[in-house]
User: Fold these one by one.
Assistant:
Number 1:
Amino acid sequence: MFPEKIKLLESQKLLRKIKDKSSPQSRVIIIDNRELINFASNDYLGISSHPFIVSNAIKILEIFGIGSGASRLLAGGVVLHNELEKKIAKFKNTPSALIFNSGYSANTGIIPALFDKDFLILSDELNHASIIDGCRLSKAEIKIYKHKDIEHLKKLLKTENKKQKIVITDSVFSMDGDIAPLSEIYNLCKKYSAFLYIDDAHGTGVLGNGKGALSHFNIRPTSWIIQMGTFSKALGSYGAFLAGSKDVVKLTLNTARSFMFSTALPACIIAASLAAIELIEKDTSSIKKLWANREKVASALSDLGFDLMKSETPIIPLKMKDIDAAIRLSDKLFKKGIYAPAIRPPTVKKPRLRITVTAAHTDEDIERLIDALKTA
Ligand SMILES: *Cc1c(COP(=O)(O)O)cnc(C)c1O
């Protein structure tokens, strides 16, 4: 039973191993006593150990302790939770916001909470697994449109259907690093009176001077746009948020099961997220550094002849011909002190190395990556 299934995964080269670090998440990490330059982190701004964030978290940790003890609807929240929600609403320019325990629990909670059998969901084929699972949990009808294919999306929006339509898309696609054409999608949603749900996990802190994808595209939030994003990536903290109208937040907090039936995030994590937003609002130099580093890496990799697929962001995939090639290259890099993991099905259809660039990388780190890839 289980052993056979494990063997099957192994024979397909799909058996993964957890590689834990004995160091903080940083530009250099230690795995199996080996020092590696880290090109696998979503801590894009390199702030997860920032002294301002850490000291704020410690201060609150000492006051409020670790466990929050209950869900938000019981007695799990403290005033900081509400302060963070107000801060997010202001940051995202929406009337209201709600904290979730993770991006995964946000998407699997919000989507089924808001979209029931009266809805038709139109979902990009490369949307994150948490969106796919959220859709599966909802009673809505689901149609998948081809990746970023505006014509296909338009055709689906045009089809006669009594149902209320909703378009769901990642803002930045987490494995391909390309950006959804949000201006076109926004215009279509407006024209066909559809809702728009965007997952800004990799846009928050990265696009639009940190404010995210809508800001990047100069799209003003409206009552029919629902945004989620995470504190766990560029903001270097943990957890997620919903940002939208007052009604959307009110309905979600009363119906999203992952919100209602799960213990609230600890106050010290909330304090860290608050500090992270303050930090990037005050000083956008790390965002500028991130993009400068991204350009350096992307141009050097294309010069080497790699297929970066359609990457436009600090997420840079290197397309490989098969799983074997991806694993072999990743292993070779590991031996040369570079951490860049192979990504394989079911995470992606096309095997690849996924390189993430951060603001913390030095020119020397980037040179070492390029040299290692040259010789590997
Ligand atoms: C990482 C990610 C999530 C999940 O967020 P977590 O806070 O890690 O659970 C959701 N959506 C996208 C697009 C992501 O990349």
Number 2:
Amino acid sequence: MTELDPAELAAARRLDDEDPIGWLRERFTVPDGLVYLDGNSLGALPRSTPDRIAEVVATEWGAGLVRSWNDAGWWSAAGRVAGSLAPLLGAAPDEVVVADSTSVNLFKLLVAGGRLRPERKVLLAERHAFPTDVYIARSAAELLGGRLRLIDSPDALGDALDDDVAVVALSHVDFRTGSSWDGARTTRRIQDAGALALWDLCHSTGAVDVALHEWGADLAVGCGYKYLNGGPGAPAYAYVARAHHDRLHTPLPGWHGHADPFAMSPEYLPMPGAGQLANGTPPIIALAALEEGVRTFDDVPLPELHAKAAALNALFERLVATHCPELELASPPQRGSQTCFRHPQAFGLVAALAERGVIGDFRAPDIARFGFAPAYLRYVDAVRAAAAVRAVLDSGAPGDHRFGERGTVT
Ligand SMILES: *Cc1c(COP(=O)(O)O)cnc(C)c1O
């Protein structure tokens, strides 16, 4: 398959023609000829975003100035985005807040979660989670006067859950391999042990099914710039189940989370609901971009979106298994919308693919990661990517000395 396999390509074209959400790609700008398999690192640009940002800057800021807090709906922007995001999380609008980064939201929820279980002294997380999650959890545990317990694999969860555990923070989809927890079943196991379940949804929302109410989840966080297409450094979100609203006690009480911010009161009175997790003035320009990203999901049947994610990954997995047997599959069957392979020269492989217009990414030490954003990828993209993998392996390029130097961002 050094050339595109005509039969595979024709079959993929048929799938694209019949795709019930094929129209959704039109809402995005995807550079011509590029096969972009990194929407789980930075999502594509929605077509509506540049004009919207220009309007926010020139009209709302330039002409409206401070009046725009009221007149252009700046004050209510974060709440509006939370409201649009809630259905993608399977949550209610008053349980979602859009603010800060995932790291900061995780900090607030771990501390607030620990305060909801004051008699328990342990925060539990995965050792191989996205590193920021572990760093933040360690600091939150110290501040709570407790400690962090790390598990090395999903199998270790059962033994690690004792009556000292206050909060368990897990990535619903693992950033490296794509391995996914069963949200409902795992939440139940955690709660049966008396702890709170905190889900990191960075690699889930916008690609795979997230149903926080159905899972019975206590807390969750996630970011805006991956499958939500909010742009680099987009604001993140946090979720707090209604059952915890009355006792919620954020460690970062700011005036944007105050029940009556313009009373300018010296006393902090939390806003009802998850809203108290807002703290400082939000980045309005970035928030406008996130709003366009979240709006790309308007009218999208989510079951079709999630089914397409699974189908794209299954197709890519099958093509690579057939045509590139030297790559070792690193993703389990139950996974998010990414398919990863181990290869001793994974870094060179990813770099050589990028030169051919197929963008994936490398995750140390030896993983080539390919994310499939179901909103804008086509089945032909999976075929083109697999053909490019074969061609790159045949060329010997992954071992090329040119790829000995890594950029700062991999
Ligand atoms: C992307 C990602 C983050 C990023 O956190 P930031 O605060 O936005 O830098 C955190 N956790 C996980 C699991 C991620 O995938």
